[in-house]
Amino acid sequence: MNRPVATTKNNQQNSNIYSQQSTFKIMLLGDSGVGKTCLLVRFRDDTFLSGSFIATVGIDFRNKNIVINNKQVKLQIYDTAGQERFRSIVHSYYRDAHALLLLYDISSIISFNHVRDWLSEIKEYAQTDVIIMLVANKVDKTNERVVTREMGENLAKEYEIPYVETSAKTGLNIEFCFKAVSQALLEQTDLAASHTQTASKILNNLVQLNNRPAKQSACCLHS
Fold it and tell me: Looking at the DSSP assignment, which residues form a beta bridge with residue 91?
């Protein structure tokens, strides 16, 4: 592959467990208005962008450092514009992405129907080993929901990608999405020599474990 799974920096001043840092590039994709920027701000700053704000133009970029399994991880997160006129700009960033979070709005059937179009673009422009997570956002909007959980899960199953429900407003599963992706990429790096598991399989296992309590108690999904 032309793109490395991760880059690692050694810190000569630290000999403890945090002496190495892996860097992963994550892109947020989906139609305009599905909540990509709100999801990023909730994760990075633990803040919800309420009210109106200017839509992303082209590409916005932010970093966040996290710790996964006693290892430092630097996430380079790209918030992309969903409008058609910016697609050519976004396409140029696909190639180097390690992970893609593909969002739709559960109150917008149009954004859900466009998921297939986004997946076609991913297949055309991204690396074959990129990991993808389908994210059903805005699940706090229970009274406006038109895309059911079953619809989202069936689509994810069709494309063999993990499915997660989130809310940037309440913070539901926001941190999990980024940490699960990071953990999958880290474990793939550690297991690269043995080729025992791919990052996609690891991520799918993590998502299944995370979704299990939600299925057992559906009343808690949209709280």
Answer: none
pLDDT tens-digit readout, 21-36: 899 999 999 999 999 9
Dist. CA 200–CA 5, nearest whole Å: 13
- The number of beta carbons lying within 10 Å of the beta carbon of residue 219 is 7
The pTM score is 0.82
Cβ partners under 8 Å of residue 150, min gap 6: none
Q: How far apart are the C-alpha atoms of 170 and 142, rounded to whole Å?
A: 13
Encoded tokens for 135: 């994210």
Q: 106 with 147: CB under 8 angstroms? A: yes
Give the whole-angstrom CA distance, residue 111 versus residue 30: 7
Q: What is the CATH number of domain 7-214?
A: 3.40.50.300
Helix, strand, coil percentages in the chain from 3-state DSSP, rounded to 5? 40, 25, 35
